[in-house]
Amino acid sequence: MLPYDLKGARLPALERNELKYRALEMVLILFRVEHLRGFVLESIRATDRFHRPTNPRIPLNAKKVYEKAWAVLIADGILTQAESDEIQSLVDYRNTVAHEIQSLTCGIADDARLAQYYAESRGIKYDDKAVAKLQHYHDKIEEGFTSKGYIMSLPLDWAAFAAAERTYEQELHRLRRKITRQVAIRNEEIQKLNAELSAEISGTPLEAHPSHPRNKAANGTLTKHGVETCYRLFDKKRSTLAVAHLMRISYRSAASRRKAWEEAGGRTRHRKMP
């Protein structure tokens, strides 16, 4: 994985787009779960009002109405028990989105170690298939209602959210294309960086090694010795990102040293290390 935190506190474009993508998906999840539940419940009740008005399967004063709704679909052969269980897991996931959204965004954070610890401690993972699953089950249930002669009741929430849903889906499509391109660039960048980091720093004396303790002051800034070490790495054709990683400094700091190195003629004087 690319140590992108080297580039500063601000997340790179890829991570920012992934966060935007998740945010839009989570909005769709919040809506689609409630829409699906309303669609199923109201369709069952509408059908019962027409076919069995004196013996409705889910009376208006019934408790645990959604449990009863999924049981009706299983009894009518529209869903299997396993499919009903998966829909319930999607409902639970919707509740996670509503109440623990931080657990679904912490995988993309400035401090990757903290994010990993938090995610593992909560036992929650982002489900990038949830939106597609909800659409699949909506289509399957609608098809089942048609084949079983149900009277389908479309909640008004669909019409109220339709414009927003179209907009979010269009934006998700645009972001998917952009993220795909950025992932390809990131993978190429990782390969180049790994090649640089794995290459032996041949002929480098101990005092010029990137990990030498004299490279850093007590406050973490580069000493004159550390600056000279940066210049020597640039001499060896190391990229700015590789120098930032090797020296354990920010990308901005490494870029500043490269600029000074280039202004000095792009070559270290190779004076004795301070």
Commentary on this structure:
With 274 residues, the chain is mainly alpha-helical. The protein folds into 2 domains: 9-191, no CATH class; 206-263. It has helices at residues 13-51, 65-75, 81-99, 112-122, 130-147, 157-198, 224-235, 240-247, 251-263. The two termini are 34 Å apart. The model is unreliable at 1-5 (pLDDT under 50).
Mean pLDDT: 87
Q: What fraction of residues sit in β-strands?
A: under 5%
Rg calculated over all Cα atoms: 29 Å
What about the largest sheet? none
Distance between the termini: 34 Å
- What general form does the structure show? elongated
Number of strands: 0
* Structural class based on helices, strands and sheet pairing: mainly alpha
Number of domains: 2
Helix count from the secondary structure assignment: 9
Helix content: 55-70%
Order of helices and strands: HHHHHHHHH
| pLDDT < 50 runs, ≥5 residues | 1-5
